[in-house]
Write a structure and sequence with these properties.
Blueprint: E1 2-4, E2 18-20, E3 29-32, E4 36-37, E5 40-41, H1 42-46, E6 49-58, E7 62-67, E8 70-75, E9 79-88, H2 94-104, E10 121-128, E11 134-145, E12 162-168, E13 171-176, H3 177-205
Antiparallel strand pairs: 1-2, 3-10, 4-5, 6-9, 7-8, 9-12, 10-11, 11-12, 11-13
Length: 209
């Protein structure tokens, strides 16, 4: 979609300036679980994932530091309310074995928690444009399953067995490949515009009336 920009960004009248909208598609994505858990490679489990949901990012708590009569406020910890994966289960039971094995890395048979470094993992979700080039990469840091798979078995339907996995996530980082290229282009254009404006201003300053 091409649309005319309603104002002049460069400072010079130009009626041919256009704005192009390139919108991201939601269906072109890939989950990557790059870990060997319970003897099962996460990359092979990733292909059975049908949905990934995460958010909301919020800082609901506000902390206060008091120093004498002065008060200073700063943001609390980032809260990620939900992150979940939805899988269809293959007949080899690899999805369930993988996540049950991951859960066993969290709590031992006596009900004690292991150190978090023992079970927290990093997973990735990449989105791609129509040409297959990766546009955004989401990095989920400090992940581990906080719920075990739930089953809804019924003779009323003959659909696939599907499970939802709830995740605990410490932090989600995003990296945009296209955005990085765009920043470089905008920076270069900005320098050209600044140079042109400076040249015009210098020329106006030399005019004598």
């Amino acid at each position: 979609m091409i649309e005319k920009i309603p104002f002049d960004l460069s400072g010079f009248a130009n009626s041919v300036v256009r704005k192009i909208w390139l919108l991201q598609r939601s269906y072109n994505w890939q989950l990557v679980l790059p870990h060997n858990i319970n003897g099962i490679i996460g990359i092979f489990v990733s292909q059975y994932c049908q949905d990934v949901k995460f958010g909301d990012y919020s800082m609901n708590t506000l902390s206060m530091l008091r120093y004498g009569p002065q008060q200073r406020f700063y943001a609390g910890l980032e809260e990620i309310d939900s992150a979940s994966l939805h899988f269809v289960c293959p007949v080899d039971n690899s999805v369930l074995d993988y996540f049950y094995g991951w859960r066993e890395l969290v709590i031992d048979k006596n009900g004690y928690y292991y150190p978090k470094n023992n079970y927290k993992k990093t997973i990735y979700v990449g989105t791609y444009d129509r040409s297959g080039i990766q546009s955004i990469n989401f990095e989920f840091q400090g992940c581990f399953p906080k719920t075990k798979p739930k089953f809804d078995l019924s003779y009323k339907s003959d659909g696939f067995l599907e499970v939802d996995i709830g995740l605990s996530v410490d932090r989600i980082n995003t990296k945009s490949v296209i955005g990085g290229v765009q920043k470089a282009i905008v920076g270069a254009v900005g320098e050209v515009v600044k140079g042109a404006v400076s040249a015009v201003q210098a020329g106006i300053g030399k005019l004598e009336f």
